[in-house]
Write a structure and sequence with these properties.
The complex is a heterodimer of chains A (253) and B (138). By secondary structure, chain A is of the alpha+beta class. Chain A is built from two helices and eleven strands, in the order αβαββββββββββ. In chain A, the strands form two sheets. In chain A, strands 1-2-3-4-5-6-7-8-9 form a nine-stranded mixed barrel. In chain A, strands 10-11 form a two-stranded antiparallel sheet. With 138 residues, chain B is α+β, with helices and mostly antiparallel strands. A five-stranded mixed beta barrel of chain B has the order 1-2-3-5-4. Chain B is globular, with a radius of gyration of 20 Å. Classes of the chains: A alpha+beta (253), B alpha+beta (138).
């Protein structure tokens, strides 16, 4: 081979390599979603924090008139009972899990996200609740999902945002004690707003019960080296008396 | 008429939500069964330290000053919440002398919600951080 031909071949090879690398990088940017795996604690912004990272205010819960009346009456009864020092029992005071979406924001407990290409699994430390988001399957129709605490969630990546659709939450599993029908649909948009700050924008739609959808955003901060604590409800010393009031079992010795 | 009524209901919900604040994080239960306007200080010997869910408990025998023992049950947050304010599972054991400050039960029974505890080594630990970002366990 002459040195001139060799020179051309070298140049071609280098250009080929450069093109290959460039194409691979472009490909990676458009198909590789961010990795949300890790343990995330609630983040409420606060002094000195970047206001863009704090969660925006929630929209109000606006119920249709026939549901609003009952909801308001129940809230008033709960408030009145609490004021008398006799709180009415809730599902969680009996160690029942929160389900979706409430499990995503329980006091100051963290959540753990385990992300693989086909599934995102979220474990809430409170009550050790687990939800699974399928990335490689279509959603079923409402009515095809057995009503439960977690429903059925499917998700897809839209650029850097994980968009999740959940149906099939049973009626006794309520967000902020809000009534809902079997037509309730929950959409979440989950994304990193900073390398260690995650937002989950949750929209609840229910054409039967809600006047309009409600939207609220949860913010999380990445925890380093945190080992999730187990949570098995095996020492619930609270009980519900005949009036539906929560009482504490004290010991005599 | 119907419109005015539904407007009132809608406004009521707006108001309720405004009072609640932007996000109400779910909580296990309200602390309404404890009298949060009163605080009681008890010093006694630990008979049990239950590092359990949904709540940890300190069981203590407190001398009543008349030669008898009173037994009290003190409710704490869950282990995870307690660890967020420095507690460890083995910070108390049977026989340890402890001083607890509590909100007593409104019912008058001998029980209460922990405000803070002074351990044998002098450390004073509270009852979890409440709201706010948790610090890592390690």
């Amino acid at each position: 081979m002459t040195s001139k031909v060799e020179g051309h071949m070298h140049r071609l090879a280098w250009w080929g390599l450069a093109l290959f690398i460039g194409c691979t990088m472009l490909q990676a940017q458009s198909t590789n979603p961010p990795d949300l795996s890790g343990v995330w604690g609630p983040y409420r912004g606060g002094r000195g924090g970047d206001p863009k990272l704090a969660p925006p205010p929630a929209s109000p819960i606006v119920l249709k008139p026939e549901y609003a009346k009952k909801y308001e009456a129940r809230r008033a009864a709960e408030q009145e009972s609490a004021n008398r020092g006799e709180p009415l029992a809730t599902a969680s005071s009996q160690c029942l899990p929160y389900g979706v979406p409430s499990m995503m924001s329980v006091a100051s407990y963290p959540i753990e996200i385990i992300q693989t290409p086909k599934q995102v699994t979220i474990i809430a430390e409170a009550f050790s609740e687990v939800r699974r988001i399928y990335l490689d399957k279509p959603q079923l129709k409402i009515g095809e999902v057995a009503p439960g605490y977690y429903g059925r969630s499917v998700g897809r990546w839209e650029g850097d945002t994980l968009v999740v659709d959940t149906i099939g939450i049973k009626e006794s599993v309520q967000y902020q004690r809000m009534p809902h029908s079997d037509q309730m649909r929950i959409t979440e948009r989950i994304r990193l707003v900073a390398p260690d700050i995650l937002h989950d924008q949750i929209t609840i739609e229910d054409p039967v019960v809600l006047e309009k959808p409600l939207t609220y955003t949860l913010a999380y901060r990445r925890l380093q080296n945190y080992e999730m604590v187990e949570f098995v409800c095996d020492n619930n010393r609270e009980y519900v008396d005949e009036n539906g009031v929560v009482r504490l079992r004290v010991r005599s010795q | 008429m119907l419109i005015a009524r539904s407007a009132v209901y809608c406004l009521t919900i707006f108001a309720a939500q405004a009072l609640l604040g932007p996000i109400a994080a779910a909580a296990h239960h309200s602390f309404a069964m404890f009298d949060q306007t009163k605080s009681l200080t008890l010093t006694g010997a630990v008979t049990a330290f239950e590092w359990t869910n949904p709540h940890a408990y300190i069981e203590i025998d407190v001398p009543d000053g008349k030669g008898k023992m009173q037994h009290w049950s003190v409710e704490l947050g869950s282990p995870s919440i307690l660890m967020q304010s420095g507690w460890k599972f083995n910070d108390l054991k049977k026989g340890d002398k402890v001083t607890v400050r509590i909100n007593p039960l409104r019912s008058g029974e001998q029980g209460g919600l922990l405000l803070d505890a002074t351990l044998p080594d002098g450390r004073v630990l509270g009852n979890g951080p409440g709201r706010g970002a948790p610090s890592p366990a390690k």
